[in-house]
Design goal:
heterodimer; A: mainly alpha; 1% strand; extended; B: alpha/beta; Rossmann fold; 6-stranded parallel β-sheet; 11 helices
Chain lengths: 205, 279
């Protein structure tokens, strides 16, 4: 019974949005719009609370000398710099040139550098996957090797054959796997949404 | 002066006005079909136990053992809820994966609570962090281990998909067991590989088709595609698992009978139905 109120709210809001999707009615549309506005307000408040929690945690770590102090210091300095750029007197907020510079000159290159590691991490993960010796990984690595061979730029008539083979592999077996997975995910998502609507509890163990 | 009868009359009139002011967005047939599908999902498919599969998806059945080993070694456990969150600007499919990961977190949290293993849950969404915190509360409440609640935490790492990956890459310490469940994108391999690098036991899952390879390459236990949604439902009590096993065998036997009977009728003209059902 402790969960009755949240479960009731979930069911009512879910039914309201579902009925609003099916039926065109000004009253229902207004109610659904207000509910969605409330959701946005809740999300904004949660984001603010998240920032406060982040500052408190890293400030406490820094103050008490525990955890990754250098990382905490960087985070707090970065947060302060972004807040100053966005809130100094006369600032235009997120569109301010200072904020744009921080994003374009600092954040974007850092993220790009991180994603540049993808290739190296993929190779390392392949090595790790091979040591696991699972059947799934073996099949996947074998398929990847076949695709790599098919995509080799050899030139001549062999190249055309390989290219058509690669195209067939991508559109038929690999495409089929992806489509099957997407269909399965769509069905599972519908079931999950229904479980949330029903407020069905998680699994026992 | 308004009386009860007038109030009821006004309410009925209001309902009538609203019905008159409404129209079906999709037309009568499509609306009935849509609501029928929802009704079927609610009444049949949405029941918790998965009926037709029985496999240790994501090696979640071994969570208790992993936590026992973690307790013996004095280690901790880590759980990442992926990078989509609940209130972030991503697609509904991604957000539902975070919600699907919460029951899995509940299973892990209860095992950790029983074993006295500190569990650190990380996410890049404050709403998801709050929900994870609530799951930890519930786990310690259900296992009557409230005195250990302070050792586990749900932490908001900051916004952005890259944040979760970079936090995993610079993480201090080596968790004995690591779990990642939820939506992943390009950063998936960074997050998963960094999480698996120093961990003795791993279980990873995502429903993002593009990241299936990352999960398969890095995790010992894997939940790929719909398995992420399926995993929590598969972890039912022993009697349910026995029932699922029996149901699976019956379905297989029935399918084999149909196929073999059809082949016999087609190739040799033998009608096995007469022998089986007497007709």
């Amino acid at each position: 019974m402790r969960r009755s109120l949240p479960a009731t709210i979930v069911v009512l809001v879910g039914l309201l949005l579902l009925v609003n999707f099916v039926v065109i009615n000004p009253l229902l549309a207004g109610a659904a719009r207000e509910v969605l506005r409330l959701v946005v307000i809740v999300a904004a408040a949660a984001a603010l609370a998240g920032v406060v929690a982040l500052v408190l945690r890293h400030g406490t770590d820094l103050w008490q000398g525990r955890g990754d102090r250098l990382g905490s210091a960087f985070l707090l300095v970065g947060l302060g710099a972004m807040l100053m750029a966005g809130f100094y007197p006369g600032s235009t907020g997120a569109a301010d040139p200072a904020v744009r510079w921080l994003v374009a000159a600092l954040l974007a290159p850092i993220v790009a550098a991180l994603f540049a590691l993808l290739f190296l991490f993929t190779l390392a993960a392949m090595r790790r996957g091979a040591t696991l010796r699972s059947r799934q990984v073996t099949v996947m690595l074998a398929a990847a090797a076949v695709v790599v061979v098919l995509l080799l730029p050899l030139g001549g008539p062999i190249d055309q054959g390989l290219a058509s083979g690669a195209s067939w592999a991508l559109s038929v077996p690999i495409g089929g796997v992806f489509r099957g997975m997407l269909i399965g995910v769509a069905i599972a998502t519908a079931i999950q949404a229904a479980r949330i609507l029903l407020a069905v509890d998680g699994a026992d163990d | 002066m308004p009386d009860l009868g007038r109030l009821l009359g006004d309410l009925v009139a209001l309902l009538g006005e609203q019905v008159a002011a409404s129209s079906l967005r999709l037309g009568p047939v499509a609306s009935v079909v849509l609501l029928g599908v929802v009704l079927v999902l609610l009444s049949l498919v949405a029941r918790p136990p998965t009926r037709w599969t029985l496999r240790d998806v994501g090696r979640l059945a071994a969570v208790g053992r992993a936590m026992a080993l973690a307790a013996e070694s004095g280690g901790a456990a880590a759980f990442s809820l992926g990078t989509a969150g609940v209130a972030r600007a991503t697609s509904a499919l991604d957000r539902l994966q975070t919600l699907a990961a919460l029951p899995i977190l509940g299973i892990v949290a209860r095992a950790a609570a029983r074993s006295g293993v500190p569990l650190r849950v990380t996410t890049n969404d404050p709403v998801a962090q709050h929900m994870a915190d609530r799951v930890l509360d519930e786990a310690h409440h259900r296992t009557e281990t409230l005195e250990r609640r302070d050792r586990s935490s749900a932490e908001y790492l900051g916004d952005g998909r890259a944040t979760a990956a970079s936090a995993a890459m610079v993480r201090v310490g080596s968790p004995a067991a690591t779990f990642v469940a939820g939506s992943l994108a390009e950063e998936g391999i960074l997050l998963l590989d960094a999480s698996a690098r120093r961990s003795a036991s791993t279980s990873f899952g995502t429903a993002d088709a593009s990241q299936a390879t990352s999960v398969l390459l890095t995790g010992e236990g894997t939940m790929v595609g719909p398995e992420l949604f399926q995993a929590a439902s598969d972890l039912r009590g022993r009697s349910d698992r026995t029932g699922v096993t029996a149901a699976n065998r019956i379905v297989l036997a029935a399918a084999a009978t149909v196929v073999l009977g059809s082949l016999a009728a087609w190739l040799a003209g033998i009608d096995v139905s007469a022998a089986l059902v007497g007709s």
